[in-house]
Write a structure and sequence with these properties.
The protein has 203 residues and is mainly alpha-helical. It has 10 helices and no strands. The chain folds into 2 domains: 79 residues, 434 Repressor (Amino-terminal Domain) (Orthogonal Bundle), CATH 1.10.260; 110 residues, no CATH class.
């Protein structure tokens, strides 16, 4: 029996959906779908994670199905299913979702994290670039909060010790950081457009 059939049968036997199995195994839904369709041969680590989530043994699930990433079968699957335009589209949507900071600042990075988790992409470059975009948004939220606190501290000290000779308006750091983040997101979009893709997957 093929690995794809074993995973599908074991999942249905436990009454799990593909989404539930993906959450238990800490992989994407797309990864589960590709494995069950026989479009991808996962690494040993992924098989071990699936075996644990399905409550079965690694040996029973693998049964000589594990292959090196350099094997002809894996290469053929990657070449047939890899689409650079789809990967760029995923990253562009993720980048554009970062503009949610205009409505929900400081926690807006949760949206691109959610999109990455449910994107279904297993391409290493896509995942790495998405993580860079998300990290930049987290850094922005931290710096934004720090500048507002710094402004508060400056105004407090100025009011208490210098009789409020000059108070800094909170809108200055606020709008400065907002404009800066727009440039950060646009820079990420330009980087994505200029990225050269190769079919390297991390299943």
């Amino acid at each position: 029996m093929e690995l794809s059939e074993k995973v599908a049968i074991a999942r249905k036997r436990k009454g799990l959906t593909q989404e539930q199995l993906a959450d238990l195994a800490n992989v994407t839904v797309r990864t589960i779908q590709r494995i069950e369709r026989g479009e991808s041969i996962p690494r040993a680590f992924t098989i071990k994670t699936l075996a644990k989530a399905l409550g079965t043994n690694f040996e029973d699930l693998a049964n000589n199905e594990t292959q090196n990433d350099s094997s002809p079968n894996v290469s053929a699957v990657v070449q047939n299913n890899f689409n650079p335009d789809n990967e760029r589209h995923i990253l562009k949507i993720l980048c554009l979702s970062c503009f949610s900071y205009l409505a929900i600042p400081l926690v807006h990075f949760i949206i691109p994290i959610y999109l990455l988790k449910h994107s279904g992409s297993s391409n290493t470059l896509t995942i790495n670039l998405a993580r860079v975009v998300i990290r930049r948004q987290i850094y922005w939220a931290i710096v934004h909060s720090f500048l507002l606190l710094l402004t508060l501290a400056y105004n407090f000290i100025n009011a208490v010790y210098f009789e409020a000779s000059y108070l800094l308006h909170y809108l200055w750091p606020f709008f400065t950081m907002y404009i800066l983040n727009a440039f950060i997101i646009m820079h990420s979009l330009i980087r994505i457009n200029n990225t050269t893709y190769s079919p390297v997957f991390s299943v």
